[in-house]
Specification:
- There is one protein chain.
- By secondary structure, this protein is of the alpha+beta class.
- It has a single domain, classed as Alpha-Beta Plaits (2-Layer Sandwich), CATH 3.30.70.930.
- The chain is 41% helix and 28% strand.
- The chain contains 3 helices and 4 strands; from the N terminus they run βαββαβα.
- It has a 4-stranded antiparallel sheet with strand order 2-3-1-4.
- A hairpin with a 4-residue loop joins strand 2 and strand 3.
- Helix 1 runs antiparallel to helix 2.
- The longest helix is centred in the middle third of the chain and has 17 residues.
Length: 103
């Protein structure tokens, strides 16, 4: 199971506004069939394998270029666990919240 936070945005667009580019990238991630949760600074994506994640990410990056950007900047934070079964992003958050109460 792979949980990643992905931020994809264009450079050299001639504008400080990038929301239409980000919207196109997010739409590609969401259309991949993977579970996606949009956040203010990135999109959390859950995939069964890195290959599934990378394929969706590649399409998201391409969406930026198709809108005319000549450069794309991508940040990925990736958590891949093989020692535990299916652990979703919600499971990860729940675990932290439960431990907050145990201090």
């Amino acid at each position: 199971m792979v949980v990643a936070e992905i931020s994809v945005f264009p450079l050299s667009t001639g504008s400080t506004s990038v929301s239409r580019y980000v919207a196109a990238a997010v739409s590609e991630l969401e259309s991949s069939g993977l579970k996606c949760t949009l956040g203010p600074m990135g999109t959390t994506v859950e995939a069964g394998t890195r290959e599934e994640l990378y394929a969706a990410l590649s399409r998201a990056q391409e969406a930026i270029f198709e809108l005319g950007s000549e450069r794309s900047y991508t940040v990925i934070k990736l958590d891949e666990r093989r020692d535990a079964g299916h652990r979703s992003a919600e499971d990860m958050v729940r675990s932290v919240r439960e431990n907050q109460g145990s201090e």
